[in-house]
């Protein structure tokens, strides 16, 4: 099948493909009662759930364009290759939180992977519904610390690191897409920008006219383009996580590249902050969402605290290993502690900056978030978005003034409802 080259599959042709692919058949067992359901609601790809009486899996196929926009915005199908190898690499270091890859067909841009069965749902949908996830902070801190540390120079030799950086340099188009939609479009006139108009028209204009904001964003864009710190997921928002009360799974790393660690950390924290500011739009007489907002804030705080603890512990455990960023012959005792402190402070401020940039683009750029979009009353939605946008601008410009995640949470609490 792969030798025939690429063709977009549908429910019928996918059946033929599965039957001709032993690695998929072995996961499904008896194919007599095979059922296929198209569930992709994302911006880029087609996703199918495939089930039989004895097995299940997910098929994901990348198309040669951005699905949410159409063929007018072409996009390389090679993103499926980078997603597949990242699932395998991140799964190597954190198998508990990354679904297994059963099959990858590069010619067809198709991945077969473990199906995350109900009650797993997209985390963003769970946050909209007001569901608390008691293990979320712990699990995401584990995932981020293990994947980022083990793909960095803190763990690897410079030779291995450069080889891996070179491998991922080919993910050009998705990097360009990130550069455009996160760091460029919101700060200028763009055909793809939109906001909750007319309520936020002036707010969007203010972003485009804020010179201080532009200078800060330029610095972050340079970091994203120039800093090959670790293998980042590249799109680690709450729509790229599936969760239950006792399971957290990270999916969709097609934007993966060697980049700044803070881009992943910030994306996740920034999307939690967006979820926080959306809650007033989902409140009703039966539930004012105040308690839930406090849970989100605690999750934000716990995620960074646990990440920092786990990451630095991995560093201490491996300080005499192969990592060449801080050679043990040079960095001993006090200077090692000082190096860690300086590194983590810079990473914290990077994370705040990238998180703020991701927030801004979700409000006045392209591809908004369901947290806000599902608020039916446009004036209420705009009010929630404005509070989030104002905080994001403050966070981006003043991030170096925050010395702890507790200070960030306190600043969020002080934003008037």
TrEMBL record:
<dbReference type="InterPro" id="IPR002575">
    <property type="entry name" value="Aminoglycoside_PTrfase"/>
</dbReference>
<comment type="similarity">
    <text>Belongs to the methylthioribose kinase family.</text>
</comment>
<dbReference type="Pfam" id="PF01636">
    <property type="entry name" value="APH"/>
</dbReference>
<keyword id="KW-0418">Kinase</keyword>
<keyword id="KW-0547">Nucleotide-binding</keyword>
<dbReference type="InterPro" id="IPR009212">
    <property type="entry name" value="Methylthioribose_kinase"/>
</dbReference>
<comment type="subunit">
    <text>Homodimer.</text>
</comment>
<feature type="domain" description="Aminoglycoside phosphotransferase">
    <location>
        <begin position="36"/>
        <end position="278"/>
    </location>
</feature>
<dbReference type="InterPro" id="IPR011009">
    <property type="entry name" value="Kinase-like_dom_sf"/>
</dbReference>
<keyword id="KW-0067">ATP-binding</keyword>
<protein>
    <recommendedName>
        <fullName>S-methyl-5-thioribose kinase</fullName>
        <ecNumber>2.7.1.100</ecNumber>
    </recommendedName>
</protein>
<dbReference type="GO" id="GO:0009086">
    <property type="term" value="P:methionine biosynthetic process"/>
</dbReference>
<keyword id="KW-0808">Transferase</keyword>
<dbReference type="GO" id="GO:0005524">
    <property type="term" value="F:ATP binding"/>
</dbReference>
<dbReference type="GO" id="GO:0046522">
    <property type="term" value="F:S-methyl-5-thioribose kinase activity"/>
</dbReference>
């Amino acid at each position: 099948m792969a030798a025939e080259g690429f063709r977009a599959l549908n429910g019928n042709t996918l059946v033929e493909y599965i039957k001709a692919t032993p690695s998929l058949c072995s996961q499904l067992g008896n194919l007599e009662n095979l059922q296929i359901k198209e569930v992709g609601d994302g911006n880029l790809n087609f996703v199918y759930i495939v089930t039989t009486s004895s097995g299940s899996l997910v098929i994901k196929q990348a198309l040669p364009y951005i699905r949410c926009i159409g063929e007018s915005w072409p996009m390389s199908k090679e993103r499926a290759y980078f997603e597949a190898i990242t699932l395998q690499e991140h799964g190597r270091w954190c198998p508990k939180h990354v679904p297994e890859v059963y099959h990858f067909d590069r010619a067809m841009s198709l991945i077969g992977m473990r199906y995350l069965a109900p009650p797993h749902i997209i985390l963003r949908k769970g946050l909209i519904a007001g569901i608390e996830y008691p293990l979320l902070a712990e699990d995401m801190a584990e995932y981020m610390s293990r994947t980022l540390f083990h793909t960095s120079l803190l763990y690897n030799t410079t030779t291995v690191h450069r080889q891996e950086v070179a491998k991922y340099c080919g993910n050009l188009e998705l990097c360009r897409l990130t550069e455009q939609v996160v760091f460029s479009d919101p700060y200028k006139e763009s055909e793809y920008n939109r906001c909750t108009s007319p309520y936020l028209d002036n707010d969007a204009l203010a972003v485009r006219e804020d010179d201080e904001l532009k200078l800060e964003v330029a610095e972050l864009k340079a970091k994203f383009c120039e800093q090959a710190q670790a293998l980042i997921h590249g799109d680690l928002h709450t729509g790229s996580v599936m969760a239950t009360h006792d399971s957290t799974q990270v999916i969709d790393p097609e934007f993966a590249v060697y980049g700044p660690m803070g881009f992943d950390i910030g994306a996740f924290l920034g999307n939690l902050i967006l979820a926080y500011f959306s809650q007033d739009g989902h409140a009703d007489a039966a539930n004012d969402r105040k308690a839930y907002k406090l849970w989100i804030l605690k999750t934000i705080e716990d995620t960074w605290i646990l990440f920092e603890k786990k990451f630095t512990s991995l560093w201490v455990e491996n300080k005499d290993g192969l990592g060449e960023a801080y050679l043990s012959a040079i960095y001993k005792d006090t200077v090692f502690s000082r190096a860690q402190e300086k590194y983590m402070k810079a990473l914290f401020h990077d994370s705040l900056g990238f998180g703020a940039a991701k927030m801004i683009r979700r409000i006045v750029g392209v591809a908004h978030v369901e947290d806000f979009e599902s608020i039916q009353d446009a004036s209420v939605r705009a009010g929630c978005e404005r509070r989030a946008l104002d905080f994001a601008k403050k966070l981006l410009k003043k991030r170096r003034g925050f010395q702890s995640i507790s200070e960030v949470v306190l600043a969020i609490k002080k934003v008037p409802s």
